[in-house]
Design brief:
The chain is of the alpha+beta class. The chain is 25% helix and 27% strand. The chain is globular and about 75 Å long.
Length: 317
């Protein structure tokens, strides 16, 4: 899933791109004054009558649970993205009136390094605040209600949120950045500076353009002249144990075996890969969408073994 972050070009943006992290602020610092605004009418009504209708319920325990959830949200970081790169109001508000950029991220690699620390959700939009009830306290929908609901005025942003255990810097995989889109008025000097900074990282650079006939915007590819082509890893340098034995691969999938070598080449050159364990076709694969997964030890990950997936239809030999 591709997601987008609109940013002005400054030293903080450069640093986050170079050092592979995103910044997750607290809810208090976000620009919506009604951020995480919700009603507790149903909760309060139930608690007021709990002694009459359900005397066996431990009200103190429920209060403690609810308080701990609210404390968790207060201490969480929220990284907001959009599901679209061509929302004019976001270019104006967050990318300094088209002089900045829009960063294209791959969600899987954005959270894959420390996946257990994040919860992801689509923002829902409503003309009334969500009402929290006692049943919500132990329900998965609670986070959606408390931190993933905003007023209808914000619906054009098509927001997607990553709720983080910690505020501030959250490091991601180096290849989570799939592309950089320059605004209509991004200076050439700024473009060249950023392309040089991010050269040789397989990042696609694009220019946002208007066809001059409508309000619609689209992108054109830009060649990064600062990229230096590196020699490919030779098959002879790939350890034998990494490539699955053909006899264990379903016959209908054997046509995709050359992609194992492509993935192996990528992983052996991947800066976050400390040790490469194995790979195979994912259980989610189909002939229309074959997927290869890799198990490896990842630099900076909280997990002893990380997993990364490759969609063959997005690759070329």
């Amino acid at each position: 899933m591709n997601l987008y972050k609109y940013r002005e070009l400054n030293k903080f943006t450069h640093e986050s791109l170079e050092e592979n992290y995103f910044w997750a602020p607290s809810k208090e610092t976000l620009n919506d004054l009604c951020e995480c605004y919700y009603s507790t009418e149903s909760y309060n009504t139930f608690m007021n009558f709990a002694s009459l209708i359900a005397p066996q319920i431990d009200k103190n325990e429920l209060h403690n649970q609810f308080d701990s959830i609210q404390d968790m949200i207060k201490n969480s970081g929220i990284f907001s993205l959009s599901k679209s790169y061509n929302i004019s109001s976001l270019w104006a508000s967050y990318a300094q009136n088209h002089t900045g950029i829009c960063i294209e991220y791959d969600l899987e690699d954005l959270i894959g390094k420390n996946k257990g620390l994040y919860q992801c959700l689509d923002v829902m939009y409503s003309d009334t605040p969500p009402d929290i009830g006692v049943d919500d306290i132990s329900n998965d929908i609670l986070l959606q209600k408390m931190i993933g609901t905003k007023h209808l005025d914000w619906d054009k942003e098509q927001e997607f949120r990553i709720v983080c255990d910690n505020q501030g810097k959250n490091h991601h995989r180096s290849d989570a950045i799939r592309g950089i889109i320059f605004g209509l008025k991004t200076p050439d000097e700024s473009k060249n500076e950023l392309m040089k900074l991010l050269s040789n990282r397989n990042i696609k650079f694009k220019q946002l353009v208007n066809d001059g006939k409508s309000y619609s915007l689209h992108t054109q590819d830009i060649v990064n002249t600062f990229d230096i082509k590196k020699p490919n890893v030779e098959k002879a340098d790939i350890p034998n144990y990494i490539i699955p034995d053909e006899k264990y691969i379903k016959e209908e999938y054997r046509a995709f075996i050359p992609y194992f070598y492509k993935v192996a080449e990528y992983m052996l050159d991947y800066p976050d890969c400390i040790e490469f364990f194995d790979m195979d076709f994912s259980g989610k694969s189909s002939l229309d969408n074959p997927i290869i997964y890799v198990n490896f030890k990842e630099e900076g990950s909280i997990h002893p073994i990380s997993q990364k997936t490759f969609h063959i239809k997005e690759m070329s030999l």
